[in-house]
Amino acid sequence: MVWEDGIPVKLGLAAMAVAALLSSSLNLDTAVLAQTQQSTVPDAPSPQAAPKLSGVDGPITPGKGAGDVQAGPNSSSNSPAEQQSAPSSQAPSSQGKDTVQTAPPELPAAGEGVSKTATIQVNVNFVEVPVTVKDSKGNLVAGLTFRDFKVFENESREPLRLFTVDPFPLSIAFVIDQSLTRDVMAKVNESLGAIQGALTPYDEAAVFTYSNGAKEWTGFTGAQSNRLPAVLALAKATGTEMLVPVNSGPLAGCNIRQNGNCVDPNLQQGKSAGDSNFMNIPKEIHTLNDAILAAAKELSTRPKARRRIIYVISDGKEYGSKATLKEVIRYLQTNKIAVYATGVGDSARWGEGYVSRVHLPFTMYDNILARYTLETGGTLDSERGLNGIEKSYAKIAEEARTQYTLGYLSHESIYDGKFRKIDVRVDRPGLEVIAKHGYYPSAQDYR
């Protein structure tokens, strides 16, 4: 027996063989265990395309919806999923497609960003002019073509870019005067039931009244809805007293006195209301300008595809408004609003209606309806009787709906906010052309 370092050689060889056997057995068990564990873990699912939505033929593009994607000439993919996932090799277009920007934008240096900022806009100043044409008897003239019209802006002729005779739906705001005398107010109250018959289901209406201040009874509602006649019934008023006021003598309207002063609750106590021998009569208040301005503000929010109309039923008197006539007319001309009116009361009397249009300084305006209708392209119809007032509703509504609509591109600068005069002419004798005298450009026109 050979000894080496005190350990028999044969015993050492045997120990090494046993150790190798144990090591190989351990490695085998580890491999079997790993294989067993791996076999228990399921395989991950393979990538699959998302299921198609019902009723959708192509991919869904943000901001555009679903639709077919046109494949390029070198594209070999046919499925919508592959077409959507494949990168686009075409240049970005303006059709709203989802593309990747390749060219970088301009990168200004620090502090120069404000001066380098650019606004992309289309400088188009399109002007729309509704025109009414009547013959010598006041009847509407039909059958004219664009060749019969000439439009001049600031003495320069503008070529027409639009001509249509299609009727427009109306957005009409009724302004009813409640400061009329009792007899005239009674006729107006009875005629209000005929307003709805002059409108179509495509129209919409709002109701305003005024006496000492404007009041809105309802915003824009359907012209054939049940709300409109109900509101018109609520808007009826009794009117003002027709008697001539007496401010002195024994028949004066102040028969209750205290310490020599009038104690009438309708008058201010003190010397401003008079003394024991004289009583100051309160001034008449007719806030027509404020009422038209309130209706115009409501109309300015309506869509441009509708005719914006203010229909006034009044005697035309104006006193006590905060807004001036010039300011209201400018607002109307800026927002494309036309004023139509039915004159009643004193303004409807033959002869007196024309004389009352003349304004004497430091006095009340007796009739300013003619000025409103003339400047905005509307018409004024004066009626005294109930039947005439009812017919004027249908007559004026027909005129406002069936007009010639002319359109052109203004040659004036879009940055010029000055008044632009419009002159519309018809190459036929004996015809009356009714159109607005001009307009003020607005930022809403630049689109």
Q: Give a quick account of the main beta sheet: strands, pairing sense, barrel closure.
A: 6 strands, mixed
What's the mean pLDDT score? 76
Q: State which percent range the strand residues make up.
A: 15-25%
Poorly predicted segments: 71-102, 111-122
CATH domain class of one domain: Alpha Beta
- Principal-axes geometry comes out as extended
**CATH architecture field of one domain:** 3-Layer(aba) Sandwich
Number of strands: 20
Q: Within the CATH hierarchy, at the fold level, what is the topology of one domain?
A: Rossmann fold
Distance from N terminus to C terminus (CA atoms, Å) equals: 113 Å
Number of helices: 10
State the CATH superfamily name of one domain.
Answer: von Willebrand factor, type A domain
Indicate the radius of gyration in whole angstroms: 42 Å
Can you walk me through this structure?
It is built from ten helices and 20 strands. With 447 residues, it is of the alpha+beta class. α4 (182-191) packs across α10 (386-401). It starts with a strand and ends in an 8-residue tail after the last strand. Mean pLDDT is 76; it is low at 71-102 and 111-122. The strands form six sheets. Strands 11-10-9-14-15-16 form a six-stranded mixed beta sheet, with helices on both faces. A four-stranded antiparallel beta sheet has the order 8-17-5-19, with no helix packed on it. It has a four-stranded antiparallel beta sheet with strand order 7-6-18-20. It is 25% helix and 21% strand. Among the domains are: 124-165 and 403-447; 169-237 and 257-395, von Willebrand factor, type A domain (Rossmann fold).
